[in-house]
Design goal:
With 680 residues, this protein is an alpha+beta fold. The chain folds into three domains: 4-310, Thrombin, subunit H, CATH 2.40.10.120; 337-494, Protein Transport Mog1p, Chain A, CATH 3.40.1000; 495-680, no CATH class. 20% of the residues lie in helices and 38% in strands. It contains 14 helices and 39 strands. Strands 19-20-21-27-26-25-24 form a seven-stranded antiparallel sheet, sandwiched between helices. Strands 29-33-34-35-38-37-36 form a seven-stranded antiparallel sheet. It is elongated, with a radius of gyration of 32 Å.
Length: 680
Amino acid sequence: MQASRFREQAASSIRPWIARVGLATLLVLSLSLAGIHPSLAASLDPGMLQKVQAATFEVVIPKPVDDPLTYEKALPLDLLPYQFRNDKYLSIGTAFALGGNRYVTAAHVINLGVGSLMGAPALRDADGHVYAIDKITQFSLGQDFVVFSLATQPSKVTALDINTKPTLNTVVYAVGNALGTGVIVRDGLYTSDTPEDQDGRWKWMRFSAAASPGNSGGPLLDKDGKIIGIVLMKSPNENLNYALPIDEVLKAPGHLAVIDKRFPYQASFLDTSQTDTFKQQFALPKSFADFSATYLTLRDAFVDGQLKKLSEAHADQLFPNGDGSNRLLHANADLRTFPAIIRRNGSGTWVMARPQASRSSLQRNGFVETSVVGGNLILMHLRKPDDLTASELYGHAKTFMDLTLKSWSFFRDIGSAKVRVTSLGEPTQQTIFSDTYQRHWQVRVWPLAYGNAIAIAFSLPVPDGYVSMIRLVPASQQHPAMIDVQAACDFVDMSYGGTLAQWKDYLTNTALLPAAFSGIDLRIDYGHRFAFHSKRFSLTYTPDLQKIDPDSYLDLGFGYIVNSASQDRRTASWEVADVEARPDAHENTRINVNRHIAPTDDLDDGFRNQWDKFRHRQPPDDSVAYNKDGVTRIATVVGEPTDSSTVLYTAFVAAEGSVPQEVMKSQLDRLVKGLQVNER
């Protein structure tokens, strides 16, 4: 069956909204959900039409009252339709009376209020009166219906009659509300029945009466105005729509919520997905608040289980295991500060993907680099302005996001206009998440109430600012998004770079330093001495080798070092494998110490040839200076390499211009003299 539920249509409108890195608001979404244009093609008796109107309601949700966001200019709300901008509610669907204080709508309509920032759904009649939901009494996620009672009964409502045995190829009427302007009735034919996709447990009614997302949850009537079904979904490319037979609602178990629906699940760090059935039941009646809490608890547990199941199924193939892992483990550390993603490509091989980033400048040498990965994950590197201390940045979430928004094109759509968002205000949630490598990510959540959405930022403090991952998701998807980004943290790779002044400032924030820094002693004495010490190697130098002042630049490149292995899988630690220092961030003059490991048998000849060159100190690691691109370079392999060596270190010196061999060799000797290797 080529059909898509209206909730899936709403979701598809949210996806490009996220991918654009700008929000198309729920205001726009609600227009699509309730935007039936009047087309009175029906021929119901006027008396019956009046009865249908009294029994049919608009499902609404309150608009947010407060907006903590700041914009570059006043919102041009006059671009929105008069009724829409003055309405206190958003229209999200249709409901109808079954009699006996029982009302029906689509489950996916009521679920728009689950986890919402806007409050509970309610019903609104043709006169504009709003009625609060009292209790949810029946619910089926698979069949997509919900039955509920109201706290106050509408005075004019009279339930419509029911026909549980409609006849094929007869006239039917699809009924729905159009932004509260009254009941719209459109006619067509009841054309066929078709089994539901999952297990064929019931049959959908197919009909040709025009239906829009505003019809979702409304009644499908026969020629006499009797209810025969609930309008739920439509074919994407043809005017053949779908309804659940009303008989399925009448014979469903009472006082019970039934969840039995198959969902695909895919984690952002894997190229494979799995499909499983979300299957649960819980007792009703419940208030909408209690129903929502119970539903979200079960949904979140299901998603947790899916992530766990997917991770366990691929555990022996997750980096540092699986095809391509050895190539990454043997590759030199990349000293670029913009983050890379370790991901599995289409052929199932792990690769280091560093997406192309765009850069926008901030004042005082600051900048923001951003890139979008996978359509909805924003990778970012924020280089803080020089007048902002590390503690001021790390300790003030609003400052971080305000700086981000100075260069991140983040807009709110108002009619045909796009208005730039300049501040999200203060986050409503702040926590710390520590990944497998004990890197401590600051996690913040900002509500975007106007879009019923949230912005989630995972930010990792680095010497010059932040490396971040940001996602925009519907508010109800906070938990699934959170656990997905948490899992993705293990696959983010970056170097730690900054001026020596930034490094000294960064190191004072001890609670936010990765665990790897507990085994590092980094000492900076301007004009006198620089010293780096780890359990694997140490480096010390003085200004006679290279300038040491606040503007000097230091890069620490991290590598993944296998620390244990079993028959099934291995683990790796995240440690410094490359140290590079420059007298200035913008100079080519530099010194470098790099760690290399012997290639494994599965690697290609290029790795083995390179290793042989290291072992025999072949060019360019032969202590002979050479000039390339106007920079003179010289390098050597430290210590005494042997055939049994499994780890080797290279020392490298570069200087601007053409520098004599003896000068370069003297500098290289100074570098090697200050280098101590503690492993072989």
